[in-house]
Amino acid sequence: MSDPRLASLTAAVPGLHLKTAPDDLAFYGRDWTRRWTPAPLAIALPDSVAQVKAVMAWAHANGVAVVPSGGRTGLSGGAVAANGELVLSLERMNKVIEFDRVDRLMTVQAGMALEALHNVAAEHGLIYPVDFAARGSCTIGGNIATNAGGIRVIRYGNTREWIAGLKVVTVSGELLELNRGLVKNSSGYDLRQLMIASEGTLGVIVEATVKLTDPPPPTNVMLLALPSFEVLMEVFAAFRERLQLEAFEFFTDLALKHTTAHGALNPFAEVYPYYVVTEYAAGDEAAEAAAMAAFEHCAGQGWVLDGVISTSVEQAQQIWRLREGITEAVARYTPYKNDVAVRISRMPAFLARCQSLIGGAYPHFEVVWFGHIGDGNLHINVLKPDGLGQDEFVAQCEQVTKLLAQVLAEFDGSISAEHGIGLVKKPYLSSTRSPVEIALMQSVKRALDPQGLLNPGKLFD
Length: 461
What we know:
InterPro entries: FAD-bd_oxidored_4_C, FAD-bd_PCMH, FAD-bd_PCMH-like_sf, FAD-bd_PCMH_sub2, FAD-linked_Oxase-like_C, FAD-oxidored/transferase_4, Oxid_FAD_bind_N, Vanillyl_alc_oxidase_C-sub2. Keywords: FAD, Flavoprotein, Oxidoreductase. The protein is α+β, with helices and mostly antiparallel strands. It has helices at 4-12, 22-28, 49-62, 114-123, 140-146, 153-156, 191-195, 232-242, 253-261, 285-300, 313-324, 326-330, 347-361, 390-410, 435-448, and strands spanning 17-19, 42-45, 66-69, 86-89, 96-100, 105-109, 163-169, 175-178, 204-211, 219-226, 245-252, 274-281, 306-309, 336-341, 366-372, 377-383. The strands form 3 sheets. The protein has a 7-stranded antiparallel β-sheet with strand order 13-10-12-11-15-16-14, sandwiched between helices. It has a 5-stranded antiparallel β-sheet with strand order 5-6-9-7-8. A 4-stranded mixed β-sheet has the order 1-2-4-3, with helices on both faces. Helix 1 crosses helix 3 (49-62), helix 8 runs antiparallel to helix 10 and helix 13 packs antiparallel against helix 14 (390-410). The longest helix has 21 residues, at 390-410.
């Protein structure tokens, strides 16, 4: 701890756990993008709101930039600390604070993993319905900071819909208690919603009061094989008309190739171009009959070539692994990722434009497509060839992202559906937000963080 600032920090925050070992700096200073060399000042791991307040007060007084850190599973460079920032990891603040059965609210510390919250809610016979593949390592604070969506948005919406209250520490170390779990509250600006999706640039989320709800009825999972991109929305419409959908996810044959190589099981004997995993309410014979009717209708139209319905929890998990295992399966290729969104009704035309654009731009690259097609969210993963340098690979990909951003602007879409803007998508923010909107966001940033100490460089400069 040779830096005198760290001695000052430990004096200002007695008992604060600090990490300064090179391996720790590398581990906590980056997210899944792996595109920036981590170089944080140190890693602070507070165990209480009081310690977070004291750390922020010290950072404010000493002009030290702070990067709030959750599970660092993001894909936009939002949790990167590459310029001597202090990483403020909330991982030790991972406990349940309160459960209220009447209000169906649970207050948790921001460092709690999403899967842990799921488990605690289940102990009370309820669910927190936001869910995605990184549930075991992502944290509630990080989910809120990016307004994470995941695989069940089609039924439950994004994180934003499930946050009843927040505690947030400001850049100067003050504590804000926002909304306090109220159902109705029209007393001025809702700063809670302002903090959601702010990527740690406006305050440090330390506690969240989340809404819980009843578990869904029994469900089944179906894996469908499709002949083309063009029929995706036809299949979606047919299933949505007949069933109560919990999820509707698609992926390509290349995605399947990588997940099966990574240990997932393919129930089909043949390889098809496109696949859908859909989960639907199946509590009675009528629901099962409706599912079969949807399948038979799509098969009769030539939209579906084959299908498998889960007959056990284990088989349902195996089917889901084909979709949820994609990100982990392609991680070794350090993929360049685009995470985009358009209105569901415009998805067919947008998919056609994207397919032409991406296919023409990357004729020699493997491109893995998957996404939450039922809510208009598409993930595009370009895999780096082994013989190509990282800098050249990123440079080629960014040229296409510029074109993709232009297409998104035409379709009134978003360059970031659920992973935030961070460093990766900052150059393309103007494709999603107007100059007036960006200027207003910058004004909000200056008002709440005039020195620019909170997660600097993210979203915009």
